[in-house]
Amino acid sequence: MRDQAHIISCLNTLRDYVRYAMSEFARHEVFLGHGTDNNWDEAVQLVLAAVDLAWDVNPAVLDAALLPDEKKQILSFIEQRVDARKPLPYITRQAWFCELPFYVDERVLIPRSPIGELIQQQFSPWLREDSVTRVLDLCTGSGCIGIACAYAFPDSEVDLVDISPDALEVAGINIEKHQMVDRVFAIESDLFAELKGRKYELIVSNPPYVDAADLASMPDEFQHEPELALGSGPDGLDITRKILRQACDYLTEDGLLVVEVGNSEVHLMQQYPELPVIWLEFEQGGNGVFAISAADLVQYKDLI
């Protein structure tokens, strides 16, 4: 970072600092992919958050002058983003998923799953909306998938399950934030271990799925995310295999399992070519998400 006193003396408005942030992002080649895909959006969100303004505030405010303390706060945010390579949502403590705001910090992954598009479509045509009374968000992290499902299926109860007590603390913050304490519940469990006797019409999971090769080559920004939530063995499927073996015991007869495996999709197809999973397509981008019915999981259980 350049001399802070000099910057403060030369730059005065929010627009000035947005331009400066963009230049710093370009100079240092920061990685984008935790919520924005261009330096303008990244800079606007960072600068506005530093002065407690919403990202969609009237653009006229960009020409407003800043107080010295506000300038220092913005420069602190830029320094965290550029020098420490901290992803934007960890700096602002907010991420958006399914057009909903969620609290996030380094205890959980930053929401970015293409499953959000499926939630907004109520998992149609693979699931009947009126049949959903219980949903399980397995490996929940921040709770964003399960809470978004609670919005999509307003008559349902949702269990948010994670092995990490730290992640469940964040999920609890989001349950309260969205005023869903009466029907969304955080449960500490190693996958299904603490769920005996429970049945769900829908199980959704974005488990750790990054294989060893991809984990070693990820940009520095990903080093801020909990490794427990990223890696899953040499092929990225250690946890997914467990989910596939056990999920049928926790699904209703007409239930549906939806799992994200990202780039480990290729490993799953190679290892289980006969498993009748449906690889889902997304209009808004994304890949590596499959669905499989409870009936097919029962029929092909011996293959997994």
Structural notes for this entry:
The protein is an alpha/beta fold. It has two domains: 4-92, no CATH class; 106-303, Rossmann fold. Helix content is 36%, strand content 15%. It has helices at 4-10, 14-28, 39-50, 68-82, 88-92, 115-120, 144-152, 165-177, 212-217, 238-246, 265-271, 294-299; strands at 95-97, 100-102, 134-138, 157-162, 184-188, 200-205, 251-260, 278-279, 289-293. The chain has a seven-stranded mixed β-sheet with strand order 5-4-3-6-7-9-8. The protein has a two-stranded antiparallel sheet with strand order 1-2. α2 crosses α3 and α2 (14-28) runs parallel beside α4 (68-82). It is elongated and about 70 Å long. The model has no long low-confidence stretch (mean pLDDT 93).
User: What is the CA-CA span between the terminal residues?
Assistant: 52 Å
Helical content band:
25-40%
Spans of 5+ residues with little confidence (pLDDT < 50)? none
Major β-sheet strand ordering? 5-4-3-6-7-9-8
Topology pattern, helix = H, strand = E: HHHHHEEHEHEHEEHHEHEEH
CATH class of the largest domain: Alpha Beta
Summed up, the domain count is: 2
Give me the number of helical elements. 12
Oligomerization: single chain
The CATH topology label of the largest domain is: Rossmann fold
**Architecture of the largest domain in CATH?**
3-Layer(aba) Sandwich
What structural class is derived from the secondary structure elements? alpha/beta
Overall pLDDT confidence: 93
Main beta sheet, described?
A: 7 strands, mixed
Shape, principal axes of CA atoms: elongated
Radius of gyration: 21 Å
Q: How many E-type strands?
A: 9
Query: How much of the residues is beta strand, in percent?
Result: 5-15%
Q: Spell out the CATH superfamily of the largest domain.
A: Vaccinia Virus protein VP39
